[in-house]
Amino acid sequence: xKRELTFDYIVIGTGPAGAVIAKTLTDNxxxxxxxxxxxxxxxxxxxxxxxxxxxELEERFFPNYFWQGEGVPQAGLDDRVFEWTTGRxxxxxxxxxxxxxxxxxxxxxxxxxxxxxxxxxxxxAIRRFKRLExxxxxxxxxxxxxxxxxxxxRQAPAVPTSMADKLTEAIEQATGFPRILDYxxxxxxLGPFTRWQLYQKPNGQRESSSTAFLSPEIMTPTGRGVRGxxxxxxxxxxxxxxxxxxxxxxxxxxLKEGKCVRAYSRKKVIVSAGINSPQLLMLSGIGPAKSLxxxxxxxxxxxxxVGRRLKNHTLNFAVFTTNHNDRALPSNDPSALYTGGAxxxxxxxxxxxxxxxxLIGIGSDGMLTLAILFLRPKSRGTIKIQNKDPLKIVLADExxxxxxxxxxxxxxxxxxxxxxxxLELARIDSSYRLIxxxxxxxxxxxxLEKFIQDNFDHNxxxxxxxxxxxxxxxxxxxxLGKVHGVKDLIVADASIIPFTVDGNTSAAAFLIxxxxxxxxxxxxxHLRSMEWEEE
Length: 535
Fold this sequence. Notes:
Radius of gyration: 23 Å
Oligomer: single chain
Shape: globular
Helix content: 10-25%
Distance between the termini: 42 Å
Number of helices: 13
Largest sheet: 7 strands, mixed
């Protein structure tokens, strides 16, 4: 329990938000930051580095890269149980995800702006995305992208396959939405496309928060006789709780090499632990007072919203046979990963200009699978603590299909989009035939509902369970990530998303990290650098 471990800031987690913050703060060589990572640095491991492993990077294949846990039985899915996990390694979830780079649309940021103010407006969000990006692809709107940031984004493949072309044409004909080149262009958020934007370097290798912001030259404390940045990273280190003095966060207690250690912060503690962030707050005494008292945890601040409003996108599939002459991916670009896709509105016509559906083409020998995500679910889940043991998994209930409208939305996707796409694909090439579900299942409401329940899968798009909002509007943190009811404690990750994003969550997490880092820098002008100059 020595007080030598004292830093200006302590950051817990190295995912998109934590890595951005740690790097940005230490751009000022006088600022010291301690980063705690529960896993190891696996950036050089082939399954992490090589993008072709991305679709297989699941805990059942590579458990050493993941936290191990399960959620509670899902009442809306016949009590099925799904994993409750994320990456446990440098880069967090960004080191094991499917690499899709999808910005939230302007419609989402308009909701954020109404709740949180102009800091989160679409215009300012886009400017910050441009500062983060190093875009390598085509677009009809170069002003929508950044080309000199730290995050490599590759649009792939350069030459789509015939399978991708046929799928895209079928979606065009079935939905009436024309093909688009760049779904991250704010002017073209809807439509089918042949090329995904991926977190990849130009050579196709994975780009994570680690490779972009915590690469070896950044983490090296000194170099060639010149004092380097004061960035210290502890690996294989599990945060146990936040330390407080009179409701001010003053440090972190953590487990390292079998020993309980404490480190102290002069300025702020920043929690960027993703799905583990609410547990850390509750172990530290911030959360529903009744649950904390039952777990014998002293209450620092009663906030019933901690762990509430958990949202996740739904995930289902449709499977087609294909023409055996059609390749899913170019032979010279297996890192392209996906065979086209689309972003579409709710097929019921309720919000015709807003993204509600994400389709992902996943091709293989003789098969084409469409992953189907409903992006605007109304169902909510909860995260509850079991006891004061920091190594005990939380009770995570994601509440899938708890709201009946979500089941109706997914059924409509099959009844309208998938059915019509299947008919158009068969017209383009009779080798393409829908085999799961079959058309007779789609046309039978009860059979379709049973198919959706039985074939429901799990997304790692958990968000909103530590909501960024005023306390009286369900908030856990304010618009700058500051935790309500205490001082000098910040949460920065996808858990604070106030309204559900309409795509993968990693882009939003990067943006949250950069925005909060920028505000910390604004409070201390000496932290600014040429690389991270003000907008």
